[in-house]
């Protein structure tokens, strides 16, 4: 009788679909188990390869399966979808996960462990608070616009709105003034929480050697360093810095065929948080260069002569990603460009 060497698991909150197969892909069992049944079954099962989609809860179950003695592979959902034969259901999904995991060229997601999940929560919560504050500010601007008071976008112009709300001479109805004050209180509360989290991120950046090293690169601050440490896989997975930049989606989208290269816009196919922060950091470096010049970075100076700032930011972010790969694989701090180099 053939031995089960791989189990594909379609994860859910309460019901788990399992697909057991031999090394050649032969189906040996299909099971639908509840959460407690799944834990007991996997704890008693002999060691094998467990494949799952990298979705919500997958990293938790990856750690649990490793504790039970199994080998774990997480696969991005977009790589599993082509292996679904026809109808989509839990059993078909579990089978497709096994089919994908058996491919020798399949790419996998590194399970998060240690402090990564906690830092991910810190990063995501700060992002959520920023979005909520932006929503509250925009709501306040739109409400006051109904009474003819206009202010530009951005939190920096919030004092203008505060003056209008607190001005006894403004023609705001009492109810509108009261609601706008509540929005101001909400914005102040969110700002306090955001500032507290920023201090926590700064403290983490000072503690870790990797985070400190990343911040030696212009355009990389504590938040960007936290994102790289939290969401990027081990750099040893990439053969070169260009592979890391491609993983981030900082390369042109290809539609090449017949030996003809057709390059389009930036692919944006990778980790969106790191990519966004690198582009934001690149724009900060470019704004400084446009104001004060870039004598220490001839490559950037020549780029800004030929390309608009946003295009240059994508190119600089790509270069920053390659530099981050080199810094982390070689355990070196950032080294500025050599004057006269063609790099």
Brief overview, please?
With 343 residues, this protein is α/β, with parallel strands linked by helices.
Radius of gyration: 25 Å
Low-pLDDT stretches are none
Order of helices and strands, N to C?
Answer: EEEHEHEHHHHHHHHEEHHH
Mean pLDDT: 90
Structural class: alpha/beta
The strand line-up of the biggest sheet is 3-2-1-4-5
Shape: globular
The residue fraction in helices comes out at 40-55%
N-to-C terminal Cα separation, in Å?
A: 60 Å
What is the number of helical segments per DSSP (H or I, 4+ residues)?
Answer: 13
Please outline the major beta sheet: 5 strands, mixed
Strand count: 7
Number of domains: 3
DSSP strand (E) fraction?
A: 5-15%
Any chance you could write out the topology, listing elements then pairs?
Elements (H helix, E strand, L loop, with lengths): L5 E5 L4 E7 L5 E8 H10 L4 E5 L4 H10 L3 E5 L1 H4 L9 H12 L14 H30 L12 H9 L7 H34 L1 H6 L7 H10 L9 H7 L4 E3 L8 E4 L5 H21 L5 H9 L2 H22 L13
Parallel strand pairs: 1-4, 4-5
Antiparallel strand pairs: 1-2, 2-3, 6-7
Descriptive tags:
343 residues; Nucleotidyltransferase, domain 5; two-stranded antiparallel sheet; globular
